[in-house]
Design brief:
heterodimer; A: about 400 residues; alpha/beta; four-stranded mixed β-sheet; 13 helices; about 40% helix; B: Aspartate Aminotransferase, domain 1; seven-stranded mixed β-sheet; 16 helices; about 15% strand; binds pyridoxal-5'-phosphate; membrane (chain A); AON_synthase_class-II (chain A); Serine palmitoyltransferase 1 (chain A); lipid metabolism (chain A)
Chain lengths: ~400, ~500
């Protein structure tokens, strides 16, 4: 053994062998040091004067582009299902007040009592004396109502799911998300830096395909799978962007087959679906304990209307309180203006609608639609008047079929 | 009085650091022993949090170190956080008494409550009140306009109240326009992505609040972090960024935005605004100023750090802030040039997708900012200033290491050793004083601290009572590490 570590050893190896090794060592040296050097040749050291010149020459873009002033509609709430929008008295088919609780006497009273007891602000985050007994009581009540272990309150609807996702999902995890998910889910997924696999809207076959391909990847590398990669399936109870209902039963089946967790955003279905308003799980008879996380924004209610026309597809499941009149023609400026003017004329006729316009950063910005939300406060007549107004307006509407 | 930008960050003596690391080591070792016992069901050690039985075989929800830390360190002092109260968080509040029979894994309430002095809430100007003009008008507005509009601002969530608030606020700050949102955190995290995007550069202070960090991350811009309030470091980094351009492509950045806070709430330090503005002008960068803690707390009329340094508001491109702290309300605002605000009305995520501010909250802000502008409000400002200065100087005299700026209403006192965090909090609570103690991960691992938030509603007697207790407990826990005390006492 010792011989290998002494100079003796060198003498015994053949001469050509040493030559080849020296050449190899040189190659390694060359590869290692030449790379950055070539780079340096491209970005040579600048002199101070050159640096100063670069700095002087640098011109930023304006912070924001010049835009015209957008006009938000000014709303005043009236008792019942009416609101005044920019001076027109309208039926409210635009806000998310599904149960019509906004103007409920008891709700408003308890809001006022809250101020009497605690003042307006909490003056601190939950961790530092911003937790009140009222918070705790509500959390316990919610958890009992839903039949889950625990509930947590957030102070801002949008932030709820958007911060719940990155709380669990981290870099390297895999999220399976419906393509038509709302913007809060998209932002939460982005904040988590996880890998995102989008499946086609409510398409369980596509979801299965994606889960299968993930399973195949994991089968190749079983160690990694068990240790680190969390897989989470994110869906909405009722999709805000389309009004359809998630196929929760199939998802729960997939959950155990592929070991994915399910996060369900029930913002539009909590208080709306199910016998007692517990949401989609109750509606579809799914055990809540099979869902890993449920989040919800506000409270809403049931009835439904329908209207078909050649220019629009009506989307939204029968039972869902959100309907979208989805333009079947491409999203261009002309059509956008057509939609806007439709919303305007409906308002003049006493129906307040919302055009489902999205921000450019939203994945779903390509479908433009008119969103109708139905509230429990509506009477039969009010609903049918809405249908009448809409159908006459849609008949007048001309949509351009060309895409820009 | 010291100059406005003077800031203190005294280093502790070496032996304190040695004790601190030994303490961490002990916690770590005992953590492992406890985990071992849990694993083999030895003793009464509480089981770790467990996934639902049905989820057997799923990959764990939390990574190993984070849950080791939660189980073995956080759990030991969990009673110090999220303590519920059952009254207005004014100068005093009713702290609910809770107990745990299973080493802080679950709590139950005894039904009793203890009246405590409140040195933990960000109630700088004392507007956390349930009586008086603010609360009454807020109540009336709620009655008239209900609790919410259930709709985003850009759809059917805008009312006259919202517009009134925005107008009043623009006048208060002396800017062209304002846009308001229902939550301060979301104001940052949902608006920075509307302003910055890839191929922009954001220079961010290392101690910036989580909401700013999240917003910057969501924007996709290149981020460079500079040392806390270190203007030399900031300048070097801007220079290098302009010279080198973007990573990989070397193209020049489209725009450079400097993101700073007015008062850093963990450090009690105040941003060196004149210098930041100077740099911003020199290098053509834009400035985003988060005044969450400084608005209402600094400046002779409560207009924040800009007024404090006598700077020009027009030099700050984006004035952001929250109503949660000084104004006893909720929500946040962004103020600035008209075009910037118009652009945000078009592109802000929060304006488009999140429900609008509650009308009662709008009213509270309108009333509170009106009060600040009046004589009564000026008195609150002066009281806050005097309380904060008195408190800070007494602590220094006693020999504690205190961080930050003399003008800050937040006063952090350094504890260093992790096991003193919980003990300090508990002893203070026994003495009837509620304080906020923080350790890793909210602060760097070697600077655990207790943080006092002064308020205009504290009376001198209350402050002196608090100081007396701190002095007593500081002696018990041996916290008086400052070397300055020895210097001054030698001199005198
Ligand atoms: C600097 C800073 N920005 C934003 C926020 C968030 O404000 P809010 O509590 O209103 O969500 C805070 C809160 O602590 C803060 O310190």
């Amino acid at each position: 053994m010792e011989r290998f570590f002494t100079l003796e050893a060198l003498k015994t190896v053949p001469y050509y062998h040493l030559c080849i090794e020296l050449i190899l060592i040189y190659c390694i040296y060359w590869l290692y040091f030449s790379g950055p050097q070539r780079d340096r040749r491209r970005r040579p050291e600048l002199t101070e004067a050159e640096k100063q010149k670069l700095i002087d020459e640098w011109e930023p873009e304006p912070l924001v582009p010049i835009v015209e002033e957008p006009q938000d509609r000014i709303v005043k709430q009236l008792p019942g299902s009416k609101i005044i929008v920019d001076g027109d008295e309208c039926l409210d088919f635009g806000s998310f007040d599904f149960l019509g609780l906004n103007k409920d006497e008891a709700v408003v009273q308890s809001g006022m009592e809250g101020i009497k007891d605690y003042g307006v602000g909490s003056c601190g985050p939950r961790g530092f004396f911003g937790t009140f007994d009222a918070h705790i009581n509500l959390e316990v009540e919610l958890a009992n109502f839903l039949g889950v272990d625990e509930a947590i309150l957030y102070s801002y609807g949008f932030s709820t799911i958007a911060s719940a996702i990155p709380a669990y999902a981290k870099k390297g995890d895999i999220l399976f998300i419906d393509e038509q998910s709302n913007f809060a889910i998209q932002q939460g997924a982005k904040a988590s830096r996880s890998t995102i696999r989008w499946y086609r809207h409510n398409d369980m076959d596509h979801l299965k395909e994606l889960l299968d391909s993930q399973a195949a990847i994991e089968a190749k590398n079983p160690k990694k799978k068990a240790k680190v990669t969390r897989k989470i399936l994110i869906a909405e109870g009722i999709y805000q962007n389309t009004g359809s209902i998630a196929q929760l039963k199939t998802m729960v089946e997939f959950k155990y087959k592929y070991q994915v967790r399910i996060f369900l955003d029930e913002s539009n279905s909590f208080g709306v679906l199910g016998e007692s308003g517990k949401g989609l799980t109750e509606h579809l008879n799914v055990d809540v304990l099979d869902i890993d996380l449920i989040s919800a924004e506000t409270e809403r209610a049931i009835p439904s209307i329908g209207e078909h026309s050649n220019a629009f597809d009506l989307t939204g499941d029968e039972i869902s309180p959100i309907k979208h009149l989805l333009l079947t023609h491409p999203n261009n400026n002309e059509n956008l203006n057509a939609i806007r003017s439709l919303v305007q004329s409906a308002q003049a006729q006493g129906i307040a609608l919302v055009s489902g316009e999205k921000l450019d950063q939203d994945r779903t910005c390509n479908n433009i639609s008119i969103r109708l939300t139905v509230s429990a406060a509506f009477s039969e007549e009010e609903l049918s008047s809405c249908v009448d107004v809409l159908s006459s307006l849609i008949k007048q509407l001309t949509v351009s079929k060309s895409s820009i | 009085m010291s100059s406005k930008i003077e800031e203190e960050f005294e280093q502790p003596p070496l032996w304190v650091l040695v004790v601190m690391y030994t303490n961490y080591m002990a916690l770590y070792i005992f953590g492992y022993i406890a985990d071992f016992c849990r694993r083999w069901n030895i003793g009464k050690t509480k089981k770790m949090a467990q996934d639902h039985k049905r989820n057997k075989g799923f990959s764990p929800l939390h990574d190993e170190f984070a849950s080791f830390f939660t189980r073995n360190m956080y759990m030991r002092m969990r009673d110090r956080f999220n303590s519920p109260i059952q009254s207005v968080p004014g100068d005093t509040f009713e702290l609910m008494d809770r107990k745990s029979d299973d080493q802080n894994w679950t709590f139950y309430f005894t039904g009793k409550a203890k009246k405590s002095l409140n040195f933990g809430s960000y109630n700088y100007l004392g507007f956390a009140e349930n009586t008086g003009k603010c609360a009454e008008t807020a109540e009336k507005t709620t009655e008239e306009m209900s609790c919410t509009f259930s709709s985003p601002r850009s759809e059917l969530g805008t009312s006259k109240k919202h517009l009134e608030l925005e107008e009043i606020w623009s006048a208060f700050l002396g800017v062209e326009a304002t846009i308001t949102f229902g939550m301060g955190f979301a104001t940052n995290s949902l608006n920075i992505p509307a302003i910055a995007g890839p191929s922009c550069l954001i220079l961010s202070d290392e101690l910036n609040h989580a909401s700013l960090v999240l917003g910057i991350r969501l924007s996709g811009a290149k981020t460079i972090v500079y040392k806390h309030n270190d203007m030399q470091d900031l300048e070097n980094k801007i220079r290098n960024a302009i010279i080198n351009g973007q990573d990989r492509t070397f193209r020049p950045y489209k725009k450079i935005i400097i993101v700073v806070e007015g008062i850093y709430s963990m450090e009690g330090s105040v941003v060196n605004l004149p210098k930041v503005i100077e740099l911003k002008k020199k290098y053509n960068a834009y400035l985003y100023l988060d005044e969450a803690h400084s608005i209402g707390a600094l400046g002779s009329c409560g207009r924040g750090v800009v007024e404090h340094f006598d700077c020009d508001v027009n030099d700050v491109d984006i004035m952001m802030g929250t109503f949660t702290k000084s104004f006893g309300a909720a929500g946040g605002y962004i103020s600035g040039k008209k075009n910037i605000i118009n652009y945000l009305r078009k592109t802000s995520h929060a304006h488009k997708y999140a429900c609008s501010m509650s009308p009662g909250v709008c009213e509270q802000i309108i009333q509170a900012s009106g009060a600040v502008a009046s004589g009564q409000g000026k008195r609150r400002l002066v009281e806050l200033r005097e309380n904060a200065l008195h408190f800070r100087q007494r602590l220094k005299k006693m020999g504690f290491i205190v961080f930050g700026n003399d003008f800050s209403p937040v006063v952090p006192l350094l504890l260093y050793v992790p096991s003193k965090i919980a003990l300090f909090g508990r002893l203070m609570e026994e003495a009837g004083i509620a304080v906020v103690v923080v350790g890793f991960p909210a602060t760097p691992i070697e600077s655990s601290r207790v943080r006092f938030c002064l308020s205009a509603s504290h009376s001198r007697a209350q402050i002196d009572q608090c100081l007396k207790e701190i002095d007593r407990i500081g002696n018990i826990l041996q916290l008086k590490h400052s070397s300055q005390r020895k210097l001054t006492s030698n001199k005198s």
